[in-house]
Structure prediction request, 571 residues.
Amino acid sequence: MTSATAEPQSSPPPAWPYCGYGATTENPVGCHGVLVAGHTACLAHLTATDRTNYLTRLTPGAAIDHRGTPFSEDLLAQLLVGLRDPVTGHPRLGPARFDGATFTNAAWFEEATFSNVSFRVATFTGTAGFTRATFTGEAEFDWVTFSDAASFGRANFTGDAGFRMATFSGPVQFPGATFTGNATFSGARFKSAPWLGPMACGSRVRLDLAVFDAPVTMAIAARELSLQRTRWASAAALRLRYAKVDLTGAVMEYPVTVTAEPVPFTGLEEDMLSEEVLASQDPDVKVTSLSGVDAAHLALTDMDLSECRFAGAVHLDQLHMDGRTTFAHPPIGWHRHGLVPLRWSRRRTLAEEHHWRAHRASQPTPLPARPPSLRNWRPGPYHPDPDRTPDPEDAAALYRQLRKAFEDGKNEPGAADFYYGEMEMRRHDRGGTAPGERRLLWGYWLLSGYGLRASRALGWLAAAMIVTIVLLMGFGLPKDSPRLQATGTVPRDGGKVTFKIDKADPQNPTGERFTSERFEKALNVTLNSVVFRSSGQDLTTAGTYIEMASRVTEPVLLGLAVLAIRNRVKR
Prediction:
């Protein structure tokens, strides 16, 4: 037997029948390569005659098992020649097992077709080339070590692909790669990968617990992208399409930008990346969770945050939100609160407010396959568990921090909506807000929508003016305007005449009170009261008190309306 490559260092024996070539006292196990059927050695350590006989008997699509086998570049080329399809001219492998194999120097599998292949715990010491390869079943690269570059450009994975705990020491390329099933990189480490993608995945891309040591640009179009507890030890740019992105617990030591791309990515040779696996999906990108994230280094552009859970995140006041950032809205249409019809005002809302209001209203849990109704608040993922549903105090703190982020970003309309949301949550917070403060907030909300609903304040002002006019016409204006009376005495011997001018007390009205003349007088008194001026109109005792009350309430309501208009125009 002849040795094709250097022997691996001593390690526990594998679970399969192994070659044992090169075993010594220091290395009692020797070669880990699985025995070739009918032989006592692995493919690398067969005699030249036995190896030739084995390779010549191979046919395209044959099942092969070379676990633990050390492959040189030449030995791998010989194996793939025996599996070459005469029609396509490219290797076609049936179920193949390369678990624990070692590929010395370059390993070229370009344009090969695999059916259920496993490279678990394999090691590629040189370039690993899988460009334009086709994986028709499951492809397992878990715990694989890529010591040099790894290329999967335009590779096509029709089943699930796993790269769990894989180590990419050199550049890794997936330009133009497509995944029909899941693509799992959980726990993988990317030591010097400047690019990841562009790739398209019809299901979920998982990068949970993955580590990126160097600056990286990720271009991914996928149905879902899971980045739970992913760590970026350097700057990163995530360019995404279609995906629902979960960033729960992600660690960002340097700036990380997440951007929704408006057009398909460009793959190899400047061709557009095929998105057929996502043809029926909405290309908008949704961030579903920032829980546990330190958002100081995070920037979001053109993101849909309508379902995003912020609870547990820190430094949300430093979160950068640019472009077209969308949030959820309150339910549409009219609703009843007891016998009172209500309609929610249009504004941006956080998912946490939706979850709390849905729990408070005892809404049923929606069916998984049915989209939530726009007429209801959207229940949270843990609905109806009260212990895992955010309360108003939690939501108020989130609104406060994100309002600051909007203000710093000069997004005044967003800041106004989040101020409204913060006040709403404080008004409903029975634990963290004092009763007196809650009563003030109720009044502030009722009269002017926290100084942001001009129509509400103007409505109350108009109502107060109407009430004032009616009361003045009914009780405040006298029956007739009192006349001035001058009385005096003329001295008999002449001299100066002294007059005393009196005015009769106004008489309470009788008879017809609601006339156009009395309306005009009442309107004049009311309009002057709005601007805190006296009309000079004679009034009854009741009318005096009515005017005093209107001069207090109506200027306040006018001020609230002006404040609301100013806030909306400014924002």
